[in-house]
Specification:
CATH architecture of chain A: Up-down Bundle
Strand content of chain B: 35-45%
Distance between the termini of chain B: 75 Å
Structural class of chain A: mainly alpha
Largest sheet of chain B: 6 strands, antiparallel
Number of helices of chain A: 9
Oligomer: heterodimer
Helix content of chain B: 25-40%
Number of strands of chain A: 0
Largest interface: A-B, 20 and 11 residues
Strand order of the largest sheet of chain B: 1-10-9-4-3-2
Structural class of chain B: alpha+beta
Number of domains of chain A: 1
Helix content of chain A: over 70%
CATH topology of chain A: Cytochrome Bc1 Complex, Chain C
Strand content of chain A: under 5%
Mean pLDDT of chain B: 91
Number of strands of chain B: 10
Radius of gyration of chain B: 29 Å
Bound molecules: protoporphyrin IX containing FE
CATH superfamily of chain A: Cytochrome Bc1 Complex, Chain C
Order of helices and strands of chain A: HHHHHHHHH
Low-confidence stretches of chain B: none
Shape of chain B: elongated
């Protein structure tokens, strides 16, 4: 039965070809460091699922953001787990992305013809940091508030355009309801959309070009 | 050749099973808790405390009388006030019936119209008699009644 449905779909989508290209492609004999990109992808998926679950209850307004987070953690069944996974996953995301970058760097995997893979990777790193920065404000507790005060103040130090960028980041002179709403929108719409698009390109390139082998001594 | 191929297949299958089971465990670890997480608020029980509506002295014989009571409730993370409205009816000054003002059709609020001697629901023209029986329109059953009690001339209801 299942095989039949598979055949029916394959006749119209040729999905087996796509499957083979992704999962049955030839790879050189590599080591565990080459799993870091996949590990990052795995945590990214975890962040997406737990993040979507959090938005079922979280509200981005100063009068209720903190209460909604407390409600999630203390009142809801397994709310602590969903929030915990998202919280620790956020740190894991940054650590894994950087380790993956280091693997690519030390193995020389950024060289021709993989420059575009590297550049999309750099943008991905910036997006991951952006996730961390915007997400940190959302619980709207003392730590969030002052960390974001300091973080956005740093933007203001840029020469000439600093003050202007600071106001754009905060949505005004001070951290306010406007700041919380735009950080939330950035965290759940802008960044996820760009991340998805760039991961798509990144992985397309990885599969299309094939991954590097472990460099030899004389390379 | 044959031997090594057999080995290859064994290893391949082992990996398939391993990946599927580890993946299954991880999927279940997030997927299963997600179910109570989503359903949590729906499963919460409403309190069954007696709610004091007010003095019955204003209730005249055979005229449904509207009582409004504001109670403090907590919905999710917000403390709010909720207004409960109920019609109190008595035919003998001894036994009291307390009816909900929620239409049994699709939950709009009904209103007592003295001139027509009936309850009227503006959403789909449902009409109920003074005891709550359906007179006209789409409502499938009479107006719901609250469990109630009278103590020292004060009427209480229970929401259930
Ligand atoms: C969200 C973040 C990222 C994800 C999900 C991701 C995912 C992946 C995956 C699954 C691979 C396959 C090979 C491997 O795992 O090592 C890969 C390869 C690669 N990544 Fe990333 N990556 C991310 C960020 C980055 C960053 C920050 C860089 C560097 C600036 C980068 C540069 C590369 C390059 C150059 C390759 C090709 C490596 C080769 O051919 O051996 N990636 N990426």
């Amino acid at each position: 039965m299942l095989a039949k449905i598979g055949d029916w779909l394959d006749e119209r989508f040729s999905w087996r070809e796509v499957w083979a290209a992704i999962f049955e492609r030839k790879v050189p004999h590599v080591n565990w460091f080459y799993t870091l990109g996949s590990a990052t992808l795995f945590v990214a998926i975890n962040q997406a699922i737990t993040g979507i679950l959090l938005t079922l209850y979280y509200v981005p307004t100063p009068d209720h953001a903190y209460d909604s987070v407390v409600y999630i953690t203390t009142q809801l069944p397994f709310g602590w787990l969903i929030r915990g996974l998202h919280h620790w996953g956020a740190s894991a995301m940054v650590v894994l992305t950087v380790l993956h970058l280091l693997r690519v760097f030390y193995f020389g995997a950024y060289k021709y013809p993989r420059e575009a893979t590297w550049i999309t990777g750099i943008i991905l790193l910036l997006i991951v940091i952006g996730f961390g920065f915007t997400g940190y404000l959302l619980p709207w507790d003392q730590k969030s508030f002052w960390a974001t005060t300091v973080g956005t103040q740093i933007i203001g130090l840029a020469p000439f355009v600093g003050d202007w960028m600071l106001r754009i980041a905060r949505g005004g002179r001070d951290i306010s309801a406007v700041t919380l709403a735009r950080f939330f929108g950035t965290h759940v719409w802008i960044l996820p959309a760009t991340l998805a698009a760039l991961v798509g390109i990144h992985l397309y390139l990885v599969i299309r070009i094939g991954i590097t082998g472990v460099p030899k001594k004389d390379e | 050749m044959d031997k090594s191929e057999g080995k290859q297949l064994g290893r391949r299958n082992f990996m398939k099973v391993a990946i599927a089971s580890i993946g299954g465990v991880i999927g279940a670890a997030i997927g299963l808790p997600a179910i109570p997480y989503i359903m949590g608020p729906a499963l919460q029980k409403e309190s069954d405390d007696w709610i004091q509506l007010g003095s019955i002295s204003k209730v005249e014989l055979n005229i449904p009388t509207l009582f409004k009571k504001t109670i403090e409730t907590q919905t999710g993370w917000i403390d709010t006030e909720e207004e409960i409205s109920a019609y109190v009816l008595t035919s003998n000054g001894q036994d009291y019936v307390v009816m909900s003002n929620v239409c049994t059709h699709l939950a709009c609020r009904v209103r007592w119209i003295p001139e027509q001697d009936s309850f009227f629901c503006p959403c789909h023209n449902g009409v109920f008699a003074k005891d709550g029986a359906v007179v006209a329109g789409p409502p499938p059953r009479p107006l719901d009644r609250f469990e109630s009690k009278v103590e020292d001339g004060v009427i209480f209801i229970k929401r259930g």
